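quick one before i forget lol
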Amino acid sequence: MKKTLITIITILLAGSSLFAQQTARFITSGTIDYQKRVNTYAVIPYQIDKDADARMKAQWQQQLDYYKRSLPQFATFNSSLSFNNNKMLLIPIKPATPYQSFQLNPITAESNTIYTDLTAGTIVMQKDAMGEQFLVKDKTRPIKWRITDETRDILGYACRRANGLVNDSIYVVAFYTDKIRVSGGPELFSGLPGMILQLNIPHENVSWTATKITEGAPAKPLTPPQKGKPTDTQGLISIIKKGMAAYRAQGINVDYYLKILGLM
């Protein structure tokens, strides 16, 4: 009887220890470095208005040819996402040499500074556009996600694929891990049962991939940015739409710019 009791206690303790080890593996605070990668040669043609006249299109083609001779095809940008439970702060990592964007394409700009409160469902984003700095306060963006059975390993974390629709029209592919129990990701992408470690927007030729994950509470408190002209997402788009109206005459695809600015 005594031996049986000892055996039962040993099994229970071993089970408790294993459960504790498994629970401890889940992460709720840390820092993730992301690299954004853009195929610039593929996105530049989107900037040309399809209704531009032949002379404008020829001028744009000359600029594009010069760009291809002068700069690499892929542009990369780095950012750091700190998170603690349901609060996150994404900040750009400034490069030593700023990237020379073709016609200031917003997709080839550095990341915005974004504070997200997942519990409240709100964001505060510091964004540079049209030569001004804006402070955008709004709700977190709704994304229609569909989780699939496809999996892959990213930095040692088992990830599952999810396909999403932004604004009911922009298709995105994400790989998230439920080992990080925070429903976040790069830029304004969130809403999955875990952290997004890789995200692709195929049609826009841009992707984000986690390059480093550091577990543990961030060294500094996570606080929202405070500088910039206050507005919300729709207000920002209206301001930019009005400011870019004159660019249509220059053969620029203003609708493309507005779509990208609303996406990131």
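fyi Residues 27-263 form one domain.
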